[in-house]
């Protein structure tokens, strides 16, 4: 059995890094040299998608798809979510307004979230710890979304594993961890 999980969020939140940390294959990436304002934050950016896989045993595989973070590539968001099981939303806590980022991406992916589930991973909290996790949880509640919220380091396989386990448990409470 094969499943598809989507990673979304703004530029620099750690989507590509998270997929690289957890994937059992070399990640297929569409990174291109950043132009515009993105180049001030990072040298490259995803322009179509990232793809990796995770073998979870018993012949089951999870396909991992990362969406581009820039709104100008938002046409890919609907394409990539087709057939998706759930959403891992990653946010960079060092941006100017991470709670506004949360609202933007929840609203952008709302049709997909309503028919599946999501988890929220907040990155770079070691650099900037405010807003705290409770603020993200409260904002999700205001948006009518019930989702677990975690502090994560996108480079750490164990952190991304926890996100995926939480998402899978929400989708199927009987899932073995």
UniProtKB/TrEMBL annotation:
Gene3D superfamilies: P-loop containing nucleotide triphosphate hydrolases. Keywords: GTP-binding, Hydrolase, Nucleotide-binding. One of its GO terms (molecular function) is hydrolase activity. InterPro entries: Gliding_Motility_GTPase (IPR052705), Gpn (IPR004130), P-loop_NTPase (IPR027417). It holds the Pfam family ATP_bind_1. Transmembrane segments: none annotated. Belongs to the GPN-loop GTPase family. This is GTP-binding protein.
